[in-house]
Amino acid sequence: MQSHEIDYKIIGRDVQLVEVELDPKETVIAEAGAMLYMEDGIGFESKMGDGSNPGAGFFDKLLSAGSRLITGESLFLTHFTNQGYGKKHVAFSAPYPGTIIPVDLRQMGGTIIVQKDAFLCAALGTKITMRFNKKIGSGLFGGEGFILQQLSGDGKAFIHAGGTVIERRLNNEILRVDTGCVVGFEQSIDFDIQQAGNLRSMVFGGEGLFLATLRGTGRVWLQSMPIRKLIHQLSSFGTNSRKEGGGGVLNNIFQ
User: Any residues with CB less than 8 A from the CB of 124 and at least 6 apart, and which?
Assistant: First the structure.
């Protein structure tokens, strides 16, 4: 199925949203709960599946939905369609502060691989499938790198990342990254999880036991503040505040 042609603009800097412009009968699909606002004339419907294969039977749709559950995503995707006259707009925001990355799948050879929670929205016709990392290291220790999502098609898709996004272009190179900081990569890139240094570095280095290894030629997207690190920092802040008598840092500020 050929993807719908959609226009868009990214709004904001540190906490971004994407506003999609739909012509009559055009549709954009999105994660459940991602919609921020929509104009009158846009209808929406939650469906099992991404709609990339209109002829798919119930069993195929159920299988696709089940794979989304394994990745930790919602069972349904929401389809937003311009049912009115003239151009209409619908906007989507990420579930936590960060950056939205627009991707033209046609320019990426039709496919990119992203972390399981990176997908935000895409033009109807984009196929979203689960992809297991086959490397044994990823399966046993990788955590965030074991289950990935594959976005395929010839239209525009939008993925989100925590904090600042860094795009790296590898030319037959190797790049080692914190496992949670990998947002996505082109299918020409080989992805694996490997042990991080010697035993002393693993225990005392503070970089974790394993690192993601990206190898090959192609584009890679990294995030400076994955949600795991953000939650850890907030938890540490809350723990320190309780130790300081409930007010913690705030008490020091207002004294």
Answer: 1, 3, 4, 26, 27, 28, 29, 51, 52, 79, 155
pLDDT in tens, 21-31: 999 999 999 98
Average pLDDT over residues 241-251: 52
Residue written as tokens 């525009």? 156
> How many Å apart are CA 191 and CA 209, to the nearest integer?
17
| Residue partners of 30: CB distance under 8 A and separation at least 6 | 77, 78, 80, 92, 120, 121, 122
Q: Which two tokens stand for residue 174?
A: 């190797």
Assessment of whether the complete model's pTM goes beyond 0.85: no
Q: Which domains does the chain have, with CATH numbers?
A: 7-224 (3.60.160.10)
